[in-house]
């Protein structure tokens, strides 16, 4: 879940940063002591780890098993919430992964979407076994911001797993439509830094900007499904 940051807010943030930098230079102080930014708990060495993570089940929905899309040691927080699309499919969070539940406007806690917090640049893996059926630009306030991928889970043709908040990795390779993917094995890309254009609810549970991989389950119009 996210809130778009207005351009005026971005300008105010830049001006505030300039004022703070001038104050620290003039006073001879340590600039990091006044920045107000809390460092990510994930070390850079963890982000650079190229080995495939251990397959950790995050949630289930009928025949669909969703695993963590990043290595468990790289997770900053997990927040389940309601997907905004019609036909959303609720997941049952796995007991082995610590998580939080966000209430919707009616006070109920939906679980058709989940934000998995991770630092920008963290390698992202497919959350399910299946086939990629769409790769399109992900848009925030009408602007393209990274990629959106849709995966049809193996054996469940009437469910779509949508993955957002990612971008191509350093090699620039993007999985194509029709590519078979393995849960926790196939690299989809990396976490995109969206902290300048959006504010994330998951940031309430982390000590960083709240960048994350968003996974949502939606029903498609074919097959018996879940």
Itemize the secondary structure elements and their pairings.
Blueprint: E1 2-4, H1 7-27, H2 44-47, E2 57-61, E3 64-67, E4 78-81, E5 92-93, E6 100-101, E7 113-117, E8 123-125, E9 130-140, E10 143-153, E11 159-167, E12 180-181, E13 187-191, E14 198-200, E15 212-219
Parallel strand pairs: 4-6
Antiparallel strand pairs: 1-14, 2-3, 2-5, 4-7, 7-15, 8-13, 9-10, 9-12, 10-11, 11-13, 11-15
Explain briefly what this protein structure is:
This protein is mainly β and 226 residues long.
Tell me, rounded to a whole number, the average pLDDT: 81
The CATH topology assignment is Glucose Permease (Domain IIA)
What is the count of distinct domains?
1
Strand content: 25-35%
The coarse silhouette is globular
Number of continuous helical runs: 2
Order of helices and strands: EHHEEEEEEEEEEEEEE
Q: What is the quaternary state of this protein?
A: single chain
* Strand element count: 15
Distance between the termini: 24 Å
Q: For the record, what is the CATH homologous superfamily label?
A: Glucose Permease (Domain IIA)
Q: Helicity level, as a percent range?
A: 10-25%
Q: Report the radius of gyration as a whole number of Å.
A: 19 Å
CATH class: Mainly Beta
